[in-house]
Design brief:
The chain is of the alpha/beta class. It has eight helices and eight strands; from the N terminus they run H-E-E-E-H-E-H-H-E-E-H-E-H-E-H-H. It has a single domain (about 5-245), classed as Aminopeptidase, CATH 3.40.630. Helix content is about 35%, strand content about 20%. Strands 1-2-4-3-5-8-6-7 form an eight-stranded mixed beta sheet, sandwiched between helices. Bound molecules: zinc ion (ZN). Zinc ion binds near residues 64, 67 and 158.
């Protein structure tokens, strides 16, 4: 671990604590509609955990409508309270029209993961990036949610490569997640213009966002492992021992 990583890890609980105002009691699960798709389907977030949590994690089950395994993980995740000290925001999919039609893009044929405003470029074909950054209501909903909640860790589930994409910036938390879920940490070749995770890592450099590529075929056992891995990561990040380990 580099000195920067140690410093960052050691400082993380204090930095994270600053992001949250203490509250007297834990809130129950809270469903909210953060926007609507092109065809008017609601985009839903399920929030759980205490409002004075020291870590906020956002899990997006799917952004490409034809990749459904992460949605299965997201649906299982919301069935349980998150570990103590963690606040969990789960968006099963930001692309409900794509899920309904089993297409990668939204109802305009836009690849939402090329529609975010960092390094956006005009792309056509299967990765059509839209007429401009944030042209799509689904990307705008996710953009608003992320800027409002500023999650410390965001996981974007995809398929089919079977790996955790090593993010730009600090890979420490993505590496830990790759150990927990049992998928290798690999940098996907190329940096995707307009991707959600890259925008987040650029816009919120103290936090981290990364892509988990589940394999093409995902068993129920792997779905469960994904749920356990998210919860374990949240528990570790919320633990006071994390600071001590970072300083050791
Ligand atoms: Zn994908």
């Amino acid at each position: 671990m580099s000195r920067w990583q140690r410093l960052r890890w050691a400082a993380a609980p204090a930095l994270l604590a600053c992001l949250h105002l203490p509250s007297a009691e834990a809130a129950a699960d809270e469903r909210s509609v953060i926007g609507h798709s092109v065809q008017g389907r609601p985009i839903v977030t399920i929030r759980s955990g205490s409002a004075d949590a020291v870590v906020t994690m956002l899990v997006v089950g799917g952004i490409h409508g034809n990749e459904s395994a992460g949605v299965r993980i997201a649906r299982r995740l919301v069935a349980q309270e998150p570990p103590r000290g963690a606040e969990l925001l789960v968006v099963p999919t930001i692309n409900p029209d794509g899920v309904a039609a089993r297409t990668r893009g939204n109802a305009h044929g836009v690849d939402l993961n090329r529609n975010f405003p960092f390094d956006w470029r005009p792309l056509s074909g299967g990765e059509y990036s839209g007429p401009g950054p944030l042209s799509e209501p689904e990307s705008r909903a996710a953009h608003r949610l992320i800027l409002r909640t500023k999650p410390d860790v965001t996981i974007w589930f995809h398929q089919p490569f079977g790996l955790v994409d090593r993010p730009e910036g600090n890979p420490f938390i993505a590496r830990r997640f790759s150990e927990l879920i049992g998928l290798p940490l690999v940098r996907l070749p190329g940096r995707y213009p307009g991707s959600a995770a890259r925008w987040q890592n650029h816009r919120l450099p103290r936090a981290t966002a990364f892509v988990v590529e589940l394999p093409r075929r995902v068993s129920n056992a792997l779905v469960l492992r994904g749920v356990v891995a998210v919860r374990a990561l949240a528990a570790e990040l919320a633990s006071p021992e994390v600071g001590a380990r970072g300083r050791a």
